[in-house]
Amino acid sequence: MSQYLVSARKYRPARFDEVVGQAHVTQTLKNALKQDKLAHAFLFCGPRGVGKTTCARILARVINCEQVTPENEPCNVCNSCQSFNNNASFNILELDAASNNSVDHIRALVEQVRFPPQQGKYKIFIIDEVHMLSQAAFNAFLKTLEEPPPYAIFILATTEKHKIIPTILSRCQIYDFKRISIADTVKHLQGICDQEKIKAEEDALHIIAEKADGALRDALSIFDRMASSAEGEVTYDGVIRNLNVLDFQYYFRVVDALIAGDHSQAMLILEEVFQNGFEGDIFINGLAEHVRNLLVIQDTRTTELLETSTTWHQRYREQSLLASPSFLLTVLHLANQTDVQFPLARNKRLHTEMALIRMAHIHHVMKVDPAALLAEKKNGQPELSPSLPKPVAPPTATSPSIAPQDSMQQVSEEKPALQHEAVTLVEVESEEITPEPVSDPVPASPEAMPHAVDKTVPVPKAKPSPVGGSLKSLSSLEKAFILKQQEQEEIELSLDHIREVWEEYANRADSPSLRQFLMDAQIQLTGERITVIVGTQMARGMIQQDTDLMPFIREQVRHPNLGMVLDVDTSLAPERDATDDTPTTPREIFDHLAEKNPMIHELRKRFDLRIDPV
Questions:
Q1: Closest by alpha carbon to 395, among 374, 418, 379?
Q2: Is residue 30 pLDDT above 50, yes or no?
Q3: Residue 62 and residue 121: Cα distance in Å, rounded?
């Protein structure tokens, strides 16, 4: 049995040009080599499996290469390159900080720095996972890293830069590695397939690249497993089966059902997903990603953001033509809400099914703006049917009127055409709504209430909507809108009202001192500003420190811009009894304490303390 090398080791880059997806790093390093401007310390940071250690090794080989190519790449022929390839180089030392993270290991490394290279110009130290070093090890390494010998170069690599102390970061040239894009990963995997004579579908390679999440090493490991299970042919069906990935076809079928408003078909498709062993949260997240792709491909400017194979592009484009952006955006919003609430749901299956039902009835369940309805009725336009509302466009700041449908999109030959305009979902009520008469909060005169609803006219019972609920009648919406307008009207400011609110707050105060200060204060009103006059600085300070006073008053008087000014008038201070010798002012308190302990005078002089005036 021959020795087998995994693809991550077999196809590990040996030159800068072979590094995938890190051109911004490799080109900078090659320019530094070309100009002979190498730093003495480098820090390579980024996610796992993106080429940090690989670039460190390539850089170390180029530095000591005896026959560097014109492109500043290692020759792989000289003694230095050969010794490194055979793991026998004495000038390139690699340390794993995850298992060698103590002070003693760093001291041993510092001792090796003292000896010059036996062959070549430089002695290079590669420290992988440097963030695993202890605090003491970092401190022991600081001086050597700041002023190493002219022949020593340090290359540090880490996945967690935030764990490295700032004194280390300031001594290094930092290079940030990014995640490998799906397109670059697929291209690299396709090149390996060509060399290994393996047949692979582009869709299958895309699934592998998405599963790797930007880590090329993970993608190569998954690719080896798929190649072994497929016996030389990597197919889309085999990849989704082995990686437990939900097929894209389910999402296309579900979205077709949602566009047609067929919640039964959507639930049947969801049952197939459950039967295949997938959880509801996985399905919802995949559906959100699918709808996002439909939104992206609708605009030619964002088509490049669609990270799928070319075979799926046409399918996405065809389905995106069947739905408006507002419909897709509403589905995406519902999917996000379902995902957020999923951990709290006791019945996960029902929670997922309810989300699909809401999505299927977006064009039936809408929140109609009361202001728009009133404007429409005032203009003499026909009212909407409460049982089957007409889709309306969202009201804008300039024109809150209801916009009619512009066009109709045919979904299939059997299904009626549907057009989804911008809508906002409301909770669907499980029972019919029978509006009950409500009492008028305002006089019923025509002058006081121009849009009042006549109570003598019987309100018809609302018919159930196609989704099992019903919308409120127009008269109920009018009343609710008028009530809301009246509640939002500001009450006229009056000094008597403010004094009542002030006294109410004073009675609620927990501190007896604060309660007394509030009761003794004099209040004046000037415009939208309250002037509060108290007798002492202590009262002023306590009232000023109470952060709940003004919010309470503003809420009660319904004036959010109400302000307050505090003033002190010593004539309002309560008169003291002549026989009462209790100290009250700061000077009296200080003198009283000084009589008991004269050392207080020495304390005040030593620390240059002052006594606040009254």
A1: 374
A2: yes
A3: 11
The three-class DSSP label of residue 612 is coil
Contact 159, 128 (CB under 8 A): no
As its CATH architecture, domain 248-360 has: Up-down Bundle (1.20)
DSSP 127: E
Which residue, 420, 397, 399, is CA-closest to 408?
420
Query: Which is nearest to 130 in space by CA: 91, 90, 171, 181?
Result: 171
Question: Domain coordinates of the chain in residue numbers?
Answer: 7-176, 182-242, 248-360, 495-572
Per-residue 3-state assignment (H helix, E strand, C coil) for 352-376: HHHHHHHHHCCCCCCCCCHHHHHHH
Task: For strands 529-534 and 522-526, give the pairing.
Answer: antiparallel
Nearest to 471 by CA among 406, 407, 383, 380: 383
The alpha carbon of residue 29 and the mean position of all alpha carbons in its chain are separated, in whole angstroms, by 34
For domain 182-242, the CATH class is mainly alpha
Considering the segment(s) 7-176 as one domain, its CATH architecture is 3-Layer(aba) Sandwich (3.40)
Amino acid letter for position 392: V
Whether the pLDDT of residue 409 is over 80: the answer is no
pLDDT digits (tens, 9 = 90+) for 144-189: 888 888 889 999 999 999 999 998 999 899 999 999 988 889 999 9
Alpha-helical runs (H) found in 521-585: 537-545, 549-557
pTM for the complete prediction? 0.55
Domain covering 495-572, topology? GMP Synthetase; Chain A, domain 3 (3.30.300)
Report how far residue 289's alpha carbon sits from residue 127's, in angstroms, rounded to the nearest whole number. Answer: 39
Upper half-sphere CA count for residue 389 (Cβ side, 13 Å): 29
Cα separation of 240 and 246, whole Å? 7
Which tokens sit at 573?
A: 């201070």
Look at residue 596 and give its three-state secondary structure: helix
Rounded to the nearest angstrom, the gap between the alpha carbon of residue 7 and the centroid of all alpha carbons in its chain is 36
Distance CA(205)–CA(202), nearest Å, equals 5
Burial class (CB in 10 A: 0-12, 13-18, 19+), 125: buried
- Candidate from 329-333, 487-491, 512-516 with smallest mean pLDDT: 487-491
